[in-house]
Design brief:
Strand order of the largest sheet: 4-12-11-9-8-5-6-7
Distance between the termini: 29 Å
Number of strands: 17
Shape: globular
Strand content: 5-15%
Low-confidence stretches: 99-103, 486-496
Number of helices: 16
Largest sheet: 8 strands, mixed
């Protein structure tokens, strides 16, 4: 194999692929070897790929170098790894790959750990990979109303509502109109969550090898994974306290002419920033000037501390293409997989054709429940605000008391703190945190520039006793990392 053909897996990427390898019992080197073995057998680590040097991987995993050496040695003895002079340690060229149907693991992308936790369930680890609260009681009330008043009429149809249940499209249109964006039902497509809406938009606009998307940084990795899965190159612009930097957007639009501009103006994930009205107006004017469509993701409009401007699309000049994504997941319940995309009717029709090919239409009962909840959104959000404000206050008090060196800006809204741990690579901290039973999303997973390696996302929608436990575990992990350095709990002796 020519050296130029080798795939190199750097230490952060390998750590991401290994997930929560450190949990469970037994010596660390055996747990590390088992995680690497599993990744090799399922094909996540391809044959011939070059692995990180022992010292660098040990630093990132916050273990002793002897742990990594022993794990590599164990896998060499199983003929899964091989070492060559001058080319380091690599996956053996002829390793068997287990069929993908043998397990259901999520593979590839910066959001791998987040999505894998959805598959695995919480286990014994408190996972911070999801920013979502529990369902509100109004869901049960709406469901009973549907069963009592709507079910017979729904059953009298064939159940196929490819573009969305008419009552729900009307409710969504009215919801936008009330918030300052006049909307007709034919400008709305109902989707199975906002994530599906993003996938449909990507399918419509992006072409492999010839498309690019300009996004905020940091940003939610699940979105960038969707763009990259459609072959797009991802560009980034930084954030300030008013939202995405307009000067950087202007420069990127002029220089790169991206296919799409993707922004989260209303409580950006992970920072919780609310884009100002003035900034919204400037961003839409820039995009219209360069004829670049905007994807406005408003799925994180949960807790709010200040009045919101109208949706970004309300500021767009005539003829500009702005697609607004939303859902009930963060405000009402993520289990109600109901989302939508609002845009020009001609584009909604094109998206609808792709939606039909994907699933023939979203679940009707879920849509009927959503149609009854949407008129109550202001009331539901007000109740959620009270709940989340109390939890945020508790989390901040606990962090100030136990981790006074950590820094953050109180979010304008949303469900998370974007926390800086000064002088610490949070990818390494994540490995220590796992040993204390808490799983975090490090900054490098939410940013491709390397500027946020000392940050991580800390959701606060948990029950208050869980928030207390989270901070206790995070503080213990931070003490281990800063005072003791890498920890080896079991002596490593390899006898060949």
């Amino acid at each position: 194999m020519d050296r130029s053909d080798l795939v190199t897996i750097d230490a952060p990427k390998l750590a991401e692929l290994l997930g929560d390898w450190v949990t469970g019992s037994g010596p660390l080197y055996r747990k590390l070897a088992a995680a690497v073995r599993s990744a090799i057998e399922e094909g996540t680590l391809p044959a011939g790929a070059v692995l990180p040097a022992e010292r660098r991987l040990a630093e990132l995993l916050s273990v002793s170098r002897a742990t990594v050496v022993a794990a590599y040695d164990l896998l060499r003895g199983e003929a899964l790894l091989e070492s060559r002079q001058g080319s380091g340690t690599r996956i053996a060229a002829d390793v068997p790959v287990r069929s993908a149907v043998d397990d259901g693991r999520v593979r590839g992308g910066a959001a791998t750990t987040i999505f894998q936790r959805l598959v695995d369930g919480p286990g014994t680890v408190i996972s911070l990979t999801r920013a979502a609260g529990t369902g509100v009681p109004a869901v049960g009330t709406a469901l009973r109303e549907v069963l009592d008043a709507d079910l017979d009429a729904l059953l009298a149809t064939d159940g196929y509502h490819a573009v969305g249940l008419p009552a729900l499209r009307e409710a969504i249109a009215e919801h936008f109109t009330v918030t300052g964006l006049p909307t007709a039902p034919d400008q709305v497509l109902v989707t199975t969550g906002a994530h599906q809406a993003l996938g449909l938009v990507s399918e419509l606009y992006l072409r492999r090898g010839g498309s690019s998307v300009l996004i905020e940084t940091p940003s939610f990795p699940g979105c960038t994974d969707v763009f990259r899965s459609h072959g797009a190159h991802v560009l980034s612009a930084t954030l300030d306290e008013e939202g995405i930097d307009a000067d950087e957007v202007a420069a990127a639009l002029a220089r790169h002419r991206p296919t799409l501009l993707y922004v989260m103006p209303t409580y950006q994930n992970p920072t919780g920033t609310l884009m100002s009205g003035e900034r919204r107006q400037r961003i839409t004017a820039l995009a219209a000037r360069h004829q670049v469509p905007i994807v406005e993701d408003s799925a994180y409009d949960a807790f709010r501390s200040t009045p919101e401007p109208p949706p970004l699309a309300a500021f767009a000049p005539p003829g500009a293409d702005v697609l607004t994504l939303g859902s009930l997941g963060k405000t009402v319940w993520s289990g109600l997989r109901t989302g939508w995309v609002r845009g020009p009717a001609t584009i909604i029709e094109r998206l609808a054709r792709r939606k039909v090919l994907a699933d023939l239409g979203s679940a009707v009962l879920d849509q009927a429940v959503a149609a009854r909840l949407l008129p109550r959104m202001e009331e539901l959000r007000a109740a959620r605000d009270v709940e989340l404000r109390a939890k945020l206050g508790l989390l901040e008090d606990l962090l100030h008391a136990r981790l006074p060196s950590w820094r953050w800006r109180r979010p304008d809204g949303g469900l998370s703190l974007w926390v800086e741990v000064p002088g610490v690579d949070t990818a390494a901290y994540a490995q220590v945190a796992l040993r204390h039973g808490v799983e975090i999303v490090p900054g490098q997973a939410m940013d491709g520039t390397g500027r946020f390696r000392s940050f991580f996302r800390l959701p606060f929608a948990f029950p208050e006793p869980v928030i207390e436990d989270i901070v206790l575990r995070l503080a213990g992990a931070y003490a281990d990392l800063t005072r003791n350095g890498p920890v080896e709990t079991t002596p490593v002796r390899v006898i060949v």
